[in-house]
Amino acid sequence: xxxxxxxxxxxxxxRLLRTTPLKKLLARPELGSVVGAVAxxxxxxxxxxxxxxxxxxxxVLYAASTIGIMAVPVALLMIGGEFDLSAGVMVTSSALIxxxxxxxxxxxxxxxxxxxxxVTLAIGVFNGVMLTRTELPSFIxxxxxxxxxxxxxxxxxxxxxxTVSTKTIADxxxxxxxxxxxxSQLTLGGVEFKVTILWWFGLVALATWxxxxxxxxxxxxxxxxGADAARAVGVPVHRTRxxxxxxxxxxxxxxxxxxxxxxxxxxxxxGVGNELIYIIAAVIGGCLITGGYGSAIGSAVGxxxxxxxxxxxxxxxxxxxxxxxxxxxxxxxxxxxxxxxxKRVEATK
Length: 349
Description:
The chain is built from 14 helices and two strands; from the N terminus they run H-H-H-H-H-H-H-E-E-H-H-H-H-H-H-H.
């Protein structure tokens, strides 16, 4: 059944046209990543015997969740047409602030966690405000933030702690309760699952609801599709962009607290390069580099592909040096598949 407009009307909004279920499926931005995820699963199920064990499920999901928590806001930001190259080191900054503030002030760990939240959100808002005020490309703005945070993480940690890592805070008040929230694990059916998996699923559900059911979600797609056109119809472009960067900062705080309370010490040089992995997960999940298209679910599938690939290579007992090759191949194949699907959808409209 082809798309048809109501009789007597020459043109209507394409969202009002009736389409077949197949066309709706093909129009989903995460379709290509789902096909890729199935292919990766089958591949490692064949070549890695231990990949299908129940115990492996928790390990794969945990690896995916550590990327997926950040891939969700990065995907929303890319749908809005922007990038954040500081996302990786911002995670480490958040953990360092919590740890060093708590240790130096001999305060309850939750005080450090709260201070970290405020400072990390301030960093995200700074990125958004600088972008809107200067109108420079987000690549330049966030690259500058990336370099500043990288230097601050190392410089301040050595200045305060005397080494490149923080002091342990495992014996401080509030540590055990904070660990339960950010770094605990549950056992279901004999399989251990990290709490980050629940954080990840919750963020994907929240982001999907925001994109599809709220006014802000409409603003995100509009800004990514064309900021000038969006502004012309009353969309608050500046506030939308600042909100998206604040969302990245919030998730960086969550990831940072998990990093801290999993190991109770933090290395100041961690996080460099992770921002590219978050972007890769979003792109594999169907987000366009040009903005205006993508989904939070797609970013989750992209992160799942990352988890399956990183752990599948280990289970197959291959040299882990090949991991980046497989990740790059998945990025290229997913991008080509997404482009092909979009062309097919546009050709049938």
